[in-house]
TrEMBL record, chain B:
<dbReference type="GO" id="GO:0005886">
    <property type="term" value="C:plasma membrane"/>
</dbReference>
<dbReference type="GO" id="GO:0009055">
    <property type="term" value="F:electron transfer activity"/>
</dbReference>
<keyword id="KW-0408">Iron</keyword>
<dbReference type="GO" id="GO:0016679">
    <property type="term" value="F:oxidoreductase activity, acting on diphenols and related substances as donors"/>
</dbReference>
<comment type="similarity">
    <text>Belongs to the MsrQ family.</text>
</comment>
<feature type="transmembrane region" description="Helical">
    <location>
        <begin position="124"/>
        <end position="144"/>
    </location>
</feature>
<feature type="transmembrane region" description="Helical">
    <location>
        <begin position="84"/>
        <end position="104"/>
    </location>
</feature>
<keyword id="KW-0472">Membrane</keyword>
<keyword id="KW-0479">Metal-binding</keyword>
<keyword id="KW-0288">FMN</keyword>
<keyword id="KW-0349">Heme</keyword>
<feature type="transmembrane region" description="Helical">
    <location>
        <begin position="156"/>
        <end position="173"/>
    </location>
</feature>
<dbReference type="GO" id="GO:0030091">
    <property type="term" value="P:protein repair"/>
</dbReference>
<keyword id="KW-0813">Transport</keyword>
<feature type="transmembrane region" description="Helical">
    <location>
        <begin position="51"/>
        <end position="72"/>
    </location>
</feature>
<protein>
    <recommendedName>
        <fullName>Protein-methionine-sulfoxide reductase heme-binding subunit MsrQ</fullName>
    </recommendedName>
</protein>
<comment type="function">
    <text>Part of the MsrPQ system that repairs oxidized periplasmic proteins containing methionine sulfoxide residues (Met-O), using respiratory chain electrons. Thus protects these proteins from oxidative-stress damage caused by reactive species of oxygen and chlorine generated by the host defense mechanisms. MsrPQ is essential for the maintenance of envelope integrity under bleach stress, rescuing a wide series of structurally unrelated periplasmic proteins from methionine oxidation.</text>
</comment>
Length: 267, 213
């Protein structure tokens, strides 16, 4: 289903875009299984209509939004973002949506709102991966409020000019291009503004491997692999790896958010 | 085989010799599958990752099959089956080498310094490499000539395959540790554990630890 979007020249990349086929067939979405092709295989039965997104917690105007209203809340832009997975592969993807801040401003976060928590849907009939007790479902991710309000942080409804396929997090996900991919929660049903830092899913499982911040950083290795380089999906069989950029190349826009922080400690 | 004669006819070395090429072709299945998938756009979005993982899994499968030969030949009383063991062991080595080459090329860009860093910095790579080193010795000394030259030491040396098996499962377990996804490592661990337990029970029954036969 097409989703008309206007290209936003502020978020444009000259890199070759990853093919639509790879973007929509190589996914981490553990609710559908841990294999990269499991989401494509199983996500078809996820119900994405009707869909409401509830915003609650430290806000002046808590409320629920129907997904079709969210699609009309602001004009849909196309932005090309790099996506760097913590597993050291990467893609270049044209997302459609608008800044998350547009939505958050609607509910007026209070002064106590220090963090934003994203909760992914749980649909047991459609999600065979829920049986794998890898994660304590639902999947939860989170950001600091200044990260969430940053214009780069995007609410995504579509990809490649079409509505998001289920395996990519339909009907609505977030994309935070300077952070490892797992921070970008998919198929979101709840956004909770909080005073305290949420315990996000991967931090709960393996805090030594996955941090709350998860900013792309080539100098801080994952315990089981280096983060200094990445494999660009679709570059071909014998293509060399690509050097990973600090903040995935978005440092000029986001480095100031972390001024003075020890990035080896807050990984 | 009939009930009046509970002992089946023994397969001869010659009969096994005829099966061997068939087993060889079957053992090439993973390689042929990769080639077929490669030419038919079937390796997915991340072929290097697919091939590194797949070769590791098939190396483990071949290792399990190698270690299953001895229990199997006792169970079905067909000692001649041992004639398949060397070939299966060499296939386990072959797929391990491909697994290692995949890592060296796609993960480490053929840089020896970078490979060394990985080996010393990351436990799962260290364990994997510790599993590989004895395999090299086992592969080299797998020939009849080396069996003769090493005499009674040959079997002692080749018992290190148990260490290789344990280290391989440990390596696999560590690979999955960060994702809490242990089903497969456990499955291989249980399979290898059962094969080793069979040997232990057998040698205890024999009242000896020689394990010959």
């Amino acid at each position: 289903e097409p989703l008309p979007a206007t290209p936003n020249p502020d978020y444009w990349l000259s890199n070759r875009q990853t093919s639509e086929k790879d973007v929509t067939s190589y996914n981490n979405f553990y609710e559908f299984g841990t294999g990269k092709t499991d989401p494509l295989r199983h996500a078809g039965s996820m119900q994405t209509r009707p869909w409401t997104v509830t915003i609650e917690g430290e806000v002046v105007k808590p409320r629920s939004f129907d997904i079709d209203d969210l699609l009309k809340l602001a004009s849909i832009e196309e932005r090309i973002y790099r996506l760097r997975c913590v597993e050291a592969w990467s893609m270049v993807i044209p997302w459609s949506g608008y800044s998350l801040s547009t939505l958050l401003k609607q509910v007026e976060p209070t002064s106590k709102a220090k963090y934003v928590e994203f909760v992914t849907v749980v649909q047991p009939e459609a999600m065979p991966g829920l049986n794998d007790r890898i994660i304590e479902w639902p999947y939860v991710e989170g950001l600091r409020i200044d990260e969430a309000m940053h214009p780069l942080t995007m609410l995504v409804f579509g990809v490649y000019g079409k509505m998001l396929p289920n395996q990519n997090g339909a009907p609505m996900r977030v994309a935070i291009p300077w952070k490892y991919g797992f921070k970008s929660g998919k198929s979101i049903v709840k956004i909770r503004l909080r005073e305290t830092m949420p315990v996000t899913s991967w931090v709960g499982i393996a805090p030594n491997e996955y941090g709350f911040y998860a900013n792309v950083n080539p100098t801080v290795p994952h315990p089981r692999w280096s983060q200094a380089s990445e494999r660009r999906i679709g570059d071909g069989f014998f293509a060399p790896r690509v050097d990973t950029l600090m903040y995935n190349g978005y440092g000029d826009q986001v480095a100031s958010l972390y001024a003075g922080m020890d990035l080896a400690k807050y990984y | 085989m009939s009930f009046s004669d509970p002992r089946p006819a023994k397969w001869s070395a010659k009969q096994l010799g005829r099966i061997k090429p068939l087993v060889f072709v079957v053992a090439l299945y993973p390689l042929l599958r990769w080639i077929w998938l490669g030419f038919n756009d079937g390796l997915g979005a991340n072929p290097p990752e697919f091939l590194i993982r797949s070769s590791g899994i098939w190396a483990l499968v071949a290792l399990c099959l190698t270690l299953a030969i001895t229990p199997l030949r006792r169970l079905i009383q067909q000692p001649a089956l041992v004639r398949l063991r060397r070939m299966l062991g060499l296939f386990a080595f072959f797929y391990t080498v491909l697994h290692l080459l995949g890592w060296a090329m796609w993960e480490r860009g053929w840089s020896l310094a970078s490979m060394w860093d990985d080996v010393v910095q990351r436990t799962f790579i260290t364990i994997g490499m510790l599993a590989f080193v004895p395999m090299v010795a086992l592969a080299i000394t797998s020939t009849t000539g080396w069996m003769r030259r090493l005499g009674r030491y040959w079997q002692a040396l080749h018992r290190s395959v148990y260490a290789v098996a344990a280290l391989s499962v440990w390596h696999f377990w560590l690979v999955r540790a960060g994702k809490n996804d242990f089903f497969e490592p456990y499955a291989y661990g249980i399979a290898l554990g059962a094969l080793l337990l069979f040997r232990l029970v057998h040698s205890m029954r024999q009242g000896t630890v020689s394990g010959r036969q």
